[in-house]
Write a structure and sequence with these properties.
By secondary structure, the protein is mainly beta.
Length: about 160
């Protein structure tokens, strides 16, 4: 019986790896649709630092469903998101930077949908490229947005 529970837990962890979310700081939000019961639908603005590239911060705006189901965390959030990343200090690129590496994720439904931010490095142009998109286990969304950060020398004033 114990082996069966361990197998089920391992299978669940393999199928739903995006439940481990990156953290972001909520900067603010605006209400977009009034709901009589529960919180309103809104657009949330969050900020996070690239965990591997020192000197880069990103701001993300995303839609959040309200109402009773949204307030209970049961509603599926829309796939609309936008991203803006900027150099905020000296950029230090690590040796082991991988294209397509996840730098941020946020669950946008109870189990099956995740908002992802992945990073690429355009070596020819010496530019970091950040892509935000929404994925589902069964069917992803083509809605996406990118932001680029040229790797530039940082002047101290």
């Amino acid at each position: 019986m114990k082996a069966g529970k361990l197998f089920a837990l391992a299978l669940f962890a393999a199928i739903f790896p995006t439940l481990q979310e990156s953290s972001a700081e909520v900067i603010g939000s605006v209400d977009t649709v009034f709901k009589m019961l529960g919180p309103d639908d809104k657009i949330i603005i969050e900020a996070f630092d690239d965990p591997k590239v020192e000197g880069v911060s990103c701001h993300l705006s995303r839609a959040k469903r309200g109402g009773v189901t949204g307030g209970l965390g049961l509603a599926e959030d829309p796939s609309n998101a936008s991203i803006a990343c900027r150099q905020v200090g000296p950029i230090r690129l690590p040796e082991n930077l991988k294209d397509g590496e996840s730098v941020f994720s946020k669950s946008t439904s109870l189990l099956f949908k995740t908002l992802q931010v992945v990073r690429f490095f355009d070596k020819k142009r010496n530019t970091l490229v950040y892509l935000v998109y929404s994925d589902k286990i069964i069917d992803g969304s083509p809605k996406n947005s990118i932001s680029t950060v040229p790797v530039m020398p940082w002047r101290k004033e």
